[in-house]
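Moderator note: this is an archived Q&A kept for reference. The question asked for a predicted structure of one protein chain; the sequence and the answer are reproduced below.
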Amino acid sequence: MRAKENEKCFAILDLRAQVLCSFYFDLHSNGPRAGAALRHHVKGTKAKIVLSQKMIIESSAPTRVDLAGGTIDIWPLYLFHPGATTVNFALSLRAHCRIETRDDDRIILESRDLKVRFETTLGRIDELLHEERLELLSKLVHFFKPTAGFHLTAFSEVPAGAGLAGSSALDIACVGALNRLVGNRYDQKKFVIVAANVETAVIKVPAGFQDYYSALYGSVSCVHFRADGIEREALNVNVDEIERRVAICYTGEPRLSGINNWEIFKRHIDGDRELFQMFEGIRDSASRMREALLANDWERVAASMRLAYPNRKKLAPTITTPQMDLLVDKAMAHGAVGAKVCGAGGGGCIAFLCTEGRKTDVERALAAEEGARVLDWKVAREGLVVTEI
């Protein structure tokens, strides 16, 4: 029975199931998909399938700080602003997905952060399209349609509503893990479009693209948006200097979408000229940021942040809260020379560029404020990581 080649499973078959041996031998190379096929074909027989070794898949993807260019990464808005880019760097604070296969048809989905867990079965997988509990996970499982039971657990290292693209990082981590579960059905270059389309269905408004690239590739990125597609440029910058100069503070207030992307989207499409000029400014700000980083010119980085800050406030006055304004003033008084509200603002995190040697002073001042929390982080040198145990 070629026992050495089939250590992962064995089958006890009655005479009516002997024809299924080819599926049995396939289990060694094809894993859960072959196992599901075998279970399907032995239905109605006395055959018994036992998997003696489960597959465990662990994946993670980094969150990010968006330095410049946010909001212009939404299709098709970037097409109206030739040269549109975004600049960001990935954080060592990661989103995680763990999948452990089962030897039955149960699907268990669990979020440690939300403390929500529910289960269904393979036969009811189509119902996940309309499942409201853990909606992102549900829609991703519905998209991939695995053919073996499993338990998926998701969690993130960043606070909820931090504005650090935690949901997009989790999206990419789950896409990577589920893709491995179904036998690497898609090439990695497809992960961004899959993740963006599924998350758009969850949030029910157009999603920006930059966050998926930082999660997929890590490090420091400039994402270029052109008529012939989207391209990620790895920026050759001194990441140690970024770590020495940038402080990141969680304000203690979950993000409440200071920038309403749908309202801005509609205004832009409707031809709002003032908004169009703001987007021109966003484009130019990202271009300046890219050039300053590549030149290792931190005075220009600071100047770019200071120029962009009022433009973002004009785009959405609610991008900051009184608590955030207080933290910005406090940081600036203790050695910060620039501030960037992360994500859509309205709460969440703020990244501060500090004068050389003053990061500790800035962090100490911020940590003294009630509710504020200074994050401990490094630049994530790698993006999506998927391992099979």
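Archived answer notes: Residues 1-52 have pLDDT under 50 and may be disordered.
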